[in-house]
Amino acid sequence: MTDWLFIDGSSLIFRAFHALPRSIRAPDGTPVNATRGFLDNLSRLLRERGPRGLGVASDSDWRPAWRVALIPSYKAHRVQEPVPSELEPQFPQIHAILAAAGVPFVGAAGFEAEDVIATWTDRAGEEAKIEIGSGDRDLFTLIRGERVRVLYPERGGLAVVDDGEVERRYGVPAHLYGDFAILRGDPSDGLPGLPGVGAKRAAELVIRHQGLEGLLGSGVLRPEACDYLRRAEQVVRPRSDLDLELPPLIAQATTDADGALELGRRWGAEGPVTRLLEILTRIRS
Fold it and tell me: At 157, which helix (H) or strand (E)?
């Protein structure tokens, strides 16, 4: 049994929004495709993984100023791609339903969901078995063997990514994936990487120097390259030192089932809410 299932709420809500038709509406006409899709995906994960504890992490700030100050291009392209107007009202729906169902949906001012998850993973301890549901590859750096794994959405379904899978895909151990990404760059995050360094070269450098610190201490890089790498290192690595407690275990969470069902009826999501409550009750028993 998995001890903890940590969900990157922002990542999976966006995926649900783009996966289901926007014509799915509440009785009052409010869009609910992301709400319904996310709740059903969460129920499916709970049914398949059977965790003892559950937490959903939120992006309180999807582009923190302190990260932008270090790397100005960080997620800059997303400024031109605001949250779709049909998705915005669905975040409060999901927050309210999860709160009534006893599922923590937690953010931290000035930080992203990945930082919340990294902090929870650190707080859970070295013996805990953890699975992280996210489409954010930055979280691969938290993987530890088969003890901490990422459930990564792909076209064929969820890929269970452990240390061996990261090494197969990228040629580096999971704990060095962040170093690899810093060197290679990541256009989806506005991370430029080192000029002329692609995936193969990045993996070679990481392995040869046993990580970014070894490369920085090797003397082979120009000062401007070292400066970029040190700034990028602070941006890419999820912060694990936030002032957050672990969520309660599912069996200890307070649930307002009637309230959750009423919200489900209001927003045309009674079926997904019912399924979520049923699987939570099953886990508690």
Answer: strand 157-161
**Does the pLDDT of residue 82 top 80, yes or no?**
no
Over the chain, what is the mean pLDDT?
95
Domain 4-171+248-277 listed as CATH 3.40.50.300: no
- The string of DSSP letters for 64-108 reads -HHHHHH-TTTTGGGGGSPPPTTTTTHHHHHHHHHHHHT--EE--
CA distance 110 to 67: 10
The DSSP line for 42-68 is HHHHHHHH--SEEEEE--S-SS-HHHH
Total length of the chain? 285
Q: According to CATH, where is 1.10.150.20 located in the chain?
A: 174-236
Ramachandran class of 221: left when φ > 0, alpha when ψ lies in -120 to 50, beta otherwise? beta
Q: Which fold has domain 174-236?
A: DNA polymerase; domain 1 (1.10.150)
What span, in angstroms and rounded, lies between the C-alpha atoms of 131 and 58? 17
Q: Tell whether the model's pLDDT for residue 80 goes beyond 80.
A: no
Take residue 189 and report the two structure tokens written for it: 């995050």
Cα Rg, the chain, nearest whole Å: 20
